[in-house]
Amino acid sequence: MKSAVLSLLVIALLPALSSLPAKEPARHVAGAESYTCRWTTHSITMDGKGDEPAWDQADRIESFSVPWLKDRSPKTRTQARLLWDRTYLYFLAEMEDHDLFADIVTHDGKTWHNDVFELFFKPSAEHDGYYEFQVNAAGTMMDMFIPQRTKTLFVDNVEKGDFHLATRVVLKGTLNERKDRDEGWQVEGRIPWTDFRSAGGRPLSGETWGFALCRYDYDKEYSDPDLSTSAPLTAKDYHQHEHYGELHFEGPDRDQAGTYGLAPFQPVTTSRVAGSPEPPLPYRVVRTLPQLQLTNPVYVEKEPGSQRLFIIDQHPSSGKQRVGRTSGDLASDQVETLLETSDVAYSLAFHPDYKTNGYFYMARSGAPGADGYDKQVRVTRYTVSPGAKGGVVDGSSLEIIQWGSNGHNGAALTFGHDGMLYITSGDGTSDSDTNLTGQGMDHLLAKLLRIDVDHPDQGAAYSVPPDNPFVDLEGARPETWAYGFRNPWRVTTDSRTGHIWVAQNGQDLWEQAYLVKRGANYGWSVYEGSHPFYLNRKRGPTPILKPTLEHPHLEARSLTGGIVYYGEKFPELQGAYLYGDYSTGKIWAAKHDGSRLLWHREVADTTLQIVGFGADGQGELLIVDYQAGKKGGFYTFEAHQGARKNSRFPLRLSRSGLFQSVRNHQLQPGAIPYEVNAPLWSDGAAKSRYVVLTSAEDRIGFSPEGNWTFPKGTVLVKSFALEMEEGKAASRRWIETRFLLFEEGEWVGYSYQWNDQQTDGRLVAREGAEQVFQIQTPEGVREQKWRYPSRTECMTCHSRAANYVLGLKTRQLNRDVDYGNVVDNQLLSFERLGVLQVDWSGQAGAVLRAALLRAWEKEELIVDLVKQLSQAPSQRTPGPSTMLPHDPAYYSRMANPYNDAHPLDDRVMAYLESNCAQCHVSAGGGNAQMNLLSSAGLSGMKIVNVKPLHDAFGLKDPVLVAPGDPGRSVLLERVARRGKGQMPQLGTNLVDEGAVSLLREWILQLATDPEKGDGSSE
Length: 1018
Hints:
Layout: H1 2-13, E1 34-39, E2 60-61, E3 78-84, E4 88-96, E5 116-122, E6 130-136, E7 141-146, H2 153-157, E8 166-172, E9 184-192, E10 208-217, E11 226-229, E12 245-249, E13 283-288, E14 295-302, E15 309-314, E16 321-326, E17 335-341, E18 344-350, H3 354-357, E19 359-366, E20 375-383, E21 398-405, E22 413-415, E23 421-424, E24 447-451, E25 480-483, E26 488-493, E27 500-504, E28 510-515, E29 527-528, E30 531-532, E31 549-552, E32 559-564, E33 577-581, E34 586-592, E35 597-605, E36 610-615, E37 621-625, E38 633-639, E39 659-661, E40 666-667, E41 672-673, E42 686-692, E43 700-701, E44 715-723, E45 732-743, E46 746-754, E47 761-763, E48 769-777, E49 780-788, H4 791-797, H5 810-813, E50 816-818, E51 823-825, H6 826-833, E52 836-837, H7 840-856, H8 863-868, H9 904-916, H10 937-941, H11 970-976, H12 993-1006
Parallel strand pairs: 1-3, 1-12, 43-52
Antiparallel strand pairs: 2-3, 3-4, 4-9, 5-6, 5-10, 6-7, 8-9, 10-11, 10-12, 13-38, 14-15, 15-16, 16-17, 18-19, 19-20, 20-21, 22-23, 23-24, 24-25, 26-27, 27-28, 28-31, 29-30, 32-33, 33-34, 34-35, 36-37, 37-38, 39-40, 41-42, 42-44, 44-45, 45-46, 46-47, 48-49, 50-51
Helix pairs in contact: 1-7, 9-12
């Protein structure tokens, strides 16, 4: 049953083939031992006729003989041909036969007792495994993989594995009528490359396999069957693979690239785009404690009195969040689970007397209480029993304090030098403080709370310290130490000075960090940091203070609070507050004496998703990188020794080495042009795009679903042009060229501003620039402002959450391109250039596994079948291929949002992915929970009838997308506006009117589709 279903799945997954011109056929003379299996781009129908043009290009294998008998030729003639493409190995055999005989009709029977055609393939001379396929004149097949030749190989192997050989036999005579004289028979067949998976699967272009084509011919006039073969065997043994012939696989011809308007690949060795125009930052990050394999780590804190670390992460087996503890052995990979929770755990803190009482405190959010909020934020105390192996004492949990929240939770903990527990809380909403909690005093929200857990009031778990600033203010919650916070993310106490630092996620434009003062009001939501937000809102009872540190969204998007460093490795950082940004991976340091800021600077630029900071047993920095699986874990600083500053870094386009002629916008011959299906909106600018590889060995990592990957030194080039006279392409003028450079495992963006003479471009300063252009329209002259992005702005969109490279992915590049003399699929163009690096085996296996999982839903039901998809032990392991795993028709392609010939839904999905999904994906930063990748599907996007987490813009009863009601749809409102709250947030100053019309039409039709407009968005 399972084997049959697997067969159906594999066959269903194999794509149709495209049709392209054939090559001239080649012949081999009798006695030849080496043949070429030629590549075909024609479709082949399994009808047994062999009349497709594809067969005309194949080598004719006519040298069948009886090589172990020097003085005898076979009694009947045989001619065979072989072809291949991305999916199949094809064969065609024409056999003279005067007495057609085949009476075996059971698959995997002993078909060699009949008239039979046999194919043997040995993928590697260095490995034992080989394949045998047989088809008799009745169309009965036998197939098997033989991992090692043995005396009982048929019995040992024939029932193992699962094959999908497809054949069709045509007879020229009468089968099993022994009295007449027949002419012969013909068989046409194909074998999917997935059937060769046990020995590594599909060959590489240019690879050579051992092979033998063989035949049994039974005739009433023969005493024994007549045997013949194409291989130079020295014995009457078709399994004598030491003497097989050679089959050379000729892949897609790179020489054909010129036919399609592409010069053969050559690297751009003249590139001077390397290093950086700026001095290197003083530190870079390196992995520490690499043996700890963590799933979504969130928090780390050293256990007092030991070298062990307490960690909050997601438990790999249960999926719950856990508090785990390391052994203290730096070489150990063990994390002891102390407790698990279905709640979302944020942070923990150790009691100052932990070594005596064993108390630690955890903050988390979970099930709602009775106050009407969606969830409750709780701080709970646990007790760890003494001793090196002491665990959490059963029944020791004590709830200290809780509050209701619908959004920003805070939930960070620290003990002050005064012995008090400090706790952050957010504003409890996610929509511009619509509940107006930021300046309110009669609740626990939007605060830094200060409580005494050692001297609790009667019947309570804590008391309010009498020196709290608002204990005597009528109506105020006395736990308040400071207020006016939006979404605090991490709090820390300076271990020497006692200063308390809080970092905070801003909303629209700014991120903040505060050295908190007693009784301070930090302004939310009257202010966002030091900038007006809603000045008409009621203010709290004390003056509003500015943040200690502040970053615009041009350089930070989701601030993560850190620690004050007192390690020994970096004396220059001692006493500095280190903190970072989740979205950009940047890390800053600031030193403050309690009265004034002494210095503040960026110290590292990383690719990490920073959710927390800590210190190890020696006080050295730990940075928590929030990723699933083996990638997630801890990093630390090392001095940056690399000399990334390049005094010769090109300050002009003409010095970049990438252009043959800047004036003509002509790049070097090796630059690879490309186009995308769904372009990013850039205020109507025309664009040209190129990939520049700088070494002959460079290869582009192909991915069927995700973004492609690129080698060190790659430069992606994109230029922008505006029409100076609206509607006249001839008036286009180049205004900007951007380079995206990949070095040291990181992408960095640079922008060049073209001069008025269109002869060159100058490197834009690190902070970016702006220019206003005068555009002639039928109504007169209008001004168009253009933003040249800062380095940080470039990487805000080209972020790790978006996999850095946005347009270079299969569903964007899978399109037809006019090369001037022919229209060709762009994926095939990359393939013909030979620049792709493809893990065929891994991707083929992933496709089959996914299909099986969909078929059976539960993985444990298909364990045996999944094993069949894997390579057998000690067999051929091919290197990466330059060929696509499948024909382009197999892969999805994004629609053009502005082409109404495409389905409306597809256009909308493509627009959202290309314009919004670089931020709105899992781990994309910010607070919105939507995922706007088209692969998520509408329900997975979480936008239909979902309440907005930010500004509602005055819309009545707003949701992100209201089926049938554009006027309530915040997503449409954001796309249709410019300024505060606009989307896309960066890189555009003009409304995309085409997108607005598209989204409005789509929202209207959602109301008529019950499957889309039912409000289901979970």
